[in-house]
User: What shape does this take?
Amino acid sequence: MRWEDIVGQDRPVRLLRAALERDQLHHAYLLAGPPGTGKELIARTLAQAANCEAEDVASRPCERCGHCLAIARGSFPDVQWILPQSEMVARGLISKADLEGAPSKEIRVDEVRALSRRLSFAALRGRRKIAALVPADALNERAQNALLKTLEEPPPATTFLLISANPDALLPTIRSRCARVQLGPVSEELIYRRLVRDGVAEPEARERAARAQGSFSQALSDPGERRSLIEAFERALAAPDERDALDLAAEHSERDAAALVAVAIEAWTRDVLVAQAGAPRQLLEARDLFDTAAQLGARLPPTTLLSQAGLCARVIEALGQNGNGRLQLERLFLGARELRASGQKGNAHG
Ligand SMILES: [Zn+2]
Assistant: This one.
């Protein structure tokens, strides 16, 4: 990505470009900002610009030279991306089958030590070695202490990029060793214009931009997918037996996928409660399902919905603590089925 194409982050982009053009890149930056605002994009662009082969500094990254292309592909030896295993599985970079146990959600001390060893050598092809930690708050405490040692005596011609939506989770000693680059939420208007440029129809672009709360990745996520998930969930709850519910849980059995499903169902449950309270369509997250939410809200007692919301929260918590994806979704779907059955019975009797 060219610097000019990064939307809505003018200040951080200006700051980093100026440092590059004066050849005064700091040895560690903390790229902090809400999810989906472009932290990784800026990190990759910085890595490219620092190693681009274009003569003219102002036109780096050129996006065309061998170095720029290799960095974009993730195959440049002097640019290292360090992610927790769970994130690598979620991005399809490794397969769960390659791991001995469950994928770790942490960046561990041995991974930081291996990184420091690799960085102690001179750059192989580029001018500057870049090590991006994504997200830096996945470093556990021992790993942070190991990183701190490296930051105190940084290897030559190296820049660390600590990427985090939650920088307060980092040790203060780590934060104080980094130059902080703060990204803000992206304005609704910029997200809207970008969606339209990407070919999204205007009314839908307006709606997605409004819902995105400053997050590009949220705006780009497909509302169609969410809709079909919610519809499958409601079908599984209305089905005469448990088969559809069990199939749906099996379909999203990977833990991170299961967590996304649980979060989507929690938001949906909130939507039904909001519709039940008589709120207009605009206040729902899944506005495209307003009619379904209103119908359910008219039929189900609030206690059933509140119990369902509580169940979602417990499942999300369990998944955050290494719970099994499939079992937790089964617990959510079968539990919700029971709540529906007893809620509707209660209605009929009362
Ligand atoms: Zn280039």
